[in-house]
Amino acid sequence: MSKGEFRYLDSIAFLQTFASQSVKIGGGAGCSNCSNPRNHIEQVGLSASRHFEEEYRAHHGITDELNEDQYADLIIGLKNRIGGNFSRTSSRSGTVRVVNTRCPFGDAVREAPNLCQMTSSVFGGIAARNFGYAKIVLDRRIADGDSKCQVTICLDPRDNASRGGVEYRFDEGKVIGSVPPAEITSRVEDRMYRAWQRNVGKRQRKRGERPHLVASSPAMLKALEIAEVAGPTTVTVLITGETGVGKEVMARAVHAISDRWERGFEAVNCGAIPENLIESALFGHEKGAFTGAYEVHHGLFERADGGTLFLDEVDSLPLAVQVQLLRVLQDGEFRRVGGRHAMQSDVRVIAASARPLNGLMADGSFREDLFYRLNVVPIYIPPLRDRSEELEDFVEYFLQRLSKRYGKSLTGVTRGVMQAIHAHSWPGNVRELENTLERSFLFCKESVLERLMFDDGVPRGNKPRVAGLPLRDAKKLAADQVEEAILKDHLRRCGGNVTAVARSLRMTPRAVHQKLVSHHIDPVPYRGRGVSEDDRALDTISH
Fold first, then answer.
1. What stretches of 297-449 adopt beta strand conformation (E)?
2. DSSP tag of 144
3. For the segment 30-77, what is each residue's pLDDT rounded down to a tens digit?
4. Tens digits of per-residue pLDDT, 151-166?
5. Are the CB atoms for 175 and 169 separated by under 8 Å?
6. Taking each helix axis from N to C terminus, what angle separates 509-518 and 498-505, rounded to the nearest 10 degrees?
7. Which residues contact 442 (CB under 8 A, 6 or more apart)?
8. Most distant CA pair in the chain, distance
């Protein structure tokens, strides 16, 4: 690709650039690099990234360091010119997130996943030269069987220490890449997907209800590390955390990592079963054991044989049932209600409690010996209010799932809504967030979610809260609000014509378009409306 030909870039020229850079690197490095194909691919990508950046600068006449919007424009334009379908989904300062629904290389990318590594090094090289640091996180990849590619570029090392990915730094005029171990979230999610494909019905697979993990906070990554160590063993695991934090999801992760992943996973909420029926539900009963027992009932310990049994709200078990559970854990034996013969049990038990069991032991409502049998490997899941870095990921995931379920899509949420989400304490944790988003989604009539409908029915989010924010952040929020209002006003006056808006604001159409994207403003609804006579009259009076 010759100088100044960025506008004519296509997939052939893209690959030719990589080929020419590969020849240069191979000629200069000898064979030492060839012994490490991954390192060679990364070096080719970094070298090509400089070439593409120079072409972009020449095409746009840019000599200063790129800002975030220009950087996003470069990488999106680069991929779209070669046949991709990239768009930006995040405008949060310090983070650039892009999504691709069509790979430039088609289905062939599944056989050549190293092309994704080239993408990572191109994105990382350009970012590191302009911002000093970048971490490239390949959240989703078509090459791995996902329906889309999602790439997050983190530009501030202070805010992204917990995220997995490839780091790039600009040091003494050179970009240096640092590849950490495989991201634990991806590893665990892959194992969960394998177990899900094996055990769920065809109807569920067709609906695409595959498992998904949101875990980027240090505490959740630590929990997953414990799950990876405990999973392959038969050790009993006790998961604790408030209601709605995702204890069952973690239990399924432990099961998926274990050697029992091909067998059944049975889950029961002990607190939802009446006290007089819980013993029968767990251990079964013989015919005639009590009034209404007309036939043999196989309990959960029989149905889960060879697999995993998840006992949620184990703290609600009656003391008599706790004794029987203790015997199963100690000896692997149990008796059906009304039965005379001991039965063998090969079940891996994972228990969960939303209440601290130490306090229940103190008042005598939970057996101390059972606690120590259950608490061999403890996993604590913190509340959502302590995992604020995961909120945006949860919002994006839930909105995607709701769009698929209800057949309508939203482009995202406003800054005000995201501010309201961060400001709320979420006592119901992930479950409350999901319910709130679903309720808000159903009543949303716009292309972007502008209000949250909480349990009290009061909509919030149209005006970001600034109370308690640092002065710098409050100023930025205020400036964003003013900028958004001005853009909407000019769109209304210009009938949605972006070029006319750019002219009236003395900006380029490209800059206006970038502003509209960052504020999640769709100009289409404004087209054909123009300025009403009342608006003109008000303008006359005000001037």
1. 308-312, 333-334, 343-344, 348-353, 377-380
2. G
3. 333 333 434 555 677 788 888 889 888 998 899 999 999 999 999 998
4. 999 998 776 555 567 8
5. yes
6. 100
7. 406
8. 94
